[in-house]
Amino acid sequence: MIYIAPSLLSADFAHLEAEIKRMENAGANYLHLDVMDGLFVPNITFGAPVISALRPHSKLIFDVHLMIQDPIRYIDDFVKAGADIITVHLESCADPRAALNAIREKELRCALAISPATPVEQLIPYLSEIDMALIMTVVPGFGGQKLIPETLEKVRTVRRYAESHHLKLDIEVDGGIKPDNIHLLTEAGANIIVAGSAIFCSKRPRSVIASMRETAAEHPYKK
Ligand code: DX5
Ligand code: ZN
After folding, report:
1. Is residue 172 lining ligand 1, measured as CB closer than 6 Å?
2. Which of 8, 142, 171, 205 could form a disulfide with 26 if both were Cys (CB 3.0 to 4.6 A apart)?
3. Which pLDDT belongs to residue 105?
4. Which DSSP category does 147 fall into?
5. End-to-end Cα, the chain, rounded Å
6. Which ligand 1 atom sits nearest the alpha carbon of residue 199?
7. Which regions in the chain score pLDDT beneath 50?
8. Do 59 and 28 meet the contact criterion of CB atoms below 8 Å apart?
9. Pocket test for ligand 1, best of 4, 7, 91, 180 (most atoms within 8 A of CB)
10. Please, where are the H alpha helices in 109-219?
């Protein structure tokens, strides 16, 4: 099954509650929440207090993508705020395993992300310890960028590894994904699709999500 995760980064920040309802009505599975600190990435978004304020207003799975330096310092805050999945970046952790353990200890789904410049080989040793791998398909920091085609091979490598090692692993992809290129990601083996601008900036998010789902179903993982 393919899960569609609209990224709140492209929402109208003056009306977050209404924007989340709009995504629920449009058929989203997850709500992707991009937390940026202006240090690990050159942009600042929102933190745990905003997520905590939104939590009572939605039943969507809160998929929190931490683009912050030393995320281990804030794991408890995001757990308390109501995250269901927490993703940390391999590049931002002094000790990635310690951060992943801190997430797992709280019985949340734990995930590890790599940016486009990071070789996929660095992610492989962690695959048996995580619930989800996030392969960034743009350089993290901003919505509305173009997908970097070279990242697709990483998705394929991770899916192949997961299959050959019998790992039940979700593969999330994030950045520049739209109805006209989603097939590249699902064919490569991704099953959780983040899309910000393509969904939020549309007047008809329901038809965007439906068309993404339809195309994804027509283009399953190709070995
Ligand atoms: C980028 C963020 C993405 C971003 C995706 O750093 O992690 O989640 O919002 O936005 P689009 O789909 O517009 O590329
Ligand atoms: Zn993201």
Report:
1. no
2. 205
3. 98
4. P
5. 17
6. 12
7. none
8. no
9. 7
10. 152-164, 182-188, 197-200, 205-218
131 is annotated as an active-site residue = no
Q: Is the CB of 71 under 6 A from ligand 1?
A: no
Q: Tell how far the Cα of 174 is from the centroid of ligand 2, in angstroms.
A: 6
pTM of the model: 0.98
pLDDT tens digits for range 176-209: 999 999 999 999 999 999 999 999 999 999 999 9
Residue 149: both structure tokens together: 């085609």
Contact assessment for residue 127 and residue 134, using Cβ atoms and an 8 Å cutoff: no
| Distance (Å) from CA 67 to ligand 2 centroid | 8
